[in-house]
Amino acid sequence: MKRQKKMENEWSKLLCKVSRDSGQDNAISFDTIGILDFSRTPRELMHFILEHYYHVEQQLTSLRDLIIQDEELTEKEWANLFRNMEHTLDRVDLVGTKLSSSQFITHPHLFSSLFQHVQSLNLSHNQLDGSWGSPDEAKTEQKEDPLNERIESSLNELYLSHNPLGKLPPCLSCHGSFSFPHLVILDISYCNLTTLSFTKVESLFPNVEEINLSGNPSLQDIHGLDRFPSLCSLIATNNQWTDLPSYINKDILSHLVNLELQNNAIEELNISSPMSNLTLLDVSQCPLIHIPNIHEATHLTYLMANQTKLTDIPLDILSIYPNLIQIEVEDTPIIPNELSDSLFTTRSTLFGDHKLIIKGLSS
Predict the structure, then answer these.
(1) Buried-most residue among 104, 139, 150, 235 (CB within 10 A)?
(2) 303: which strand partners?
């Protein structure tokens, strides 16, 4: 009893601190709290609050952000979490909480709450495999739709990095119960992926703009990547690629605005497919020996080639990339005094008159 009273006092002090952090002079009530960040809370107090969460959660009507990091939660805490709160939360960060697929099965409200109502969801550095998010889990707390229509998710950002997925979870495939009309960012980096199959992409993911596939060196094939109608940013670093794989075809390349290929095994990058929308290319930390040759990349503005094996910058680079504004070549063998003055002359670009900026050259 004394312990509980002590914890309740600490909880009150925490509320006062939250109010001060939010710019309010006096202690505030539960219904004015917008952010709960347990990453800065003493461990014992955090577990006390989560175990008694259901006593106060209905009063947390203004709570928008919930952050719990690097703490393993108990079954009771998982059971209490998000009860009757799913309609208020916009951002949930559960990084490093040892969340596993079994929690979604044991506590199905977790899955439905997180995927249906939250807008930004970070589940990185957990223990999720590729078996979670089945239709049965999603519908446990949903009435069966007579038309068998999908549940519309509110997610616009989903981060699953550093989970041992192995494959795409059912909820992100045509076998799931959700559609993701608002999803813009999908991070499935460092997930031990070998193959991916995106089907019915046009209806499931109509607005995804960025996909992060980094840290999946065993990824051999992706089916349907070219059917993301809004994809403009592809991040594929640290994949041991020696060239662009064939599944990144011309239909994908033609839409890309941002392409990040850092820390791969690429020595030469020649892309014959037009990339007329590309504005940023990053090939840093690749053993690149020549400036990439990309067909019709006339809008390329920024080229990052730090820590490569480049020895020079070709004199005709501005005729290949007429709107190039900046190149980064830190830690390369390029000798500054061997570069022609013609590279630094002012010329007209889509963005006005500019001189080419070359960053990272040692004197």
Answers:
(1) 104
(2) 281, 327
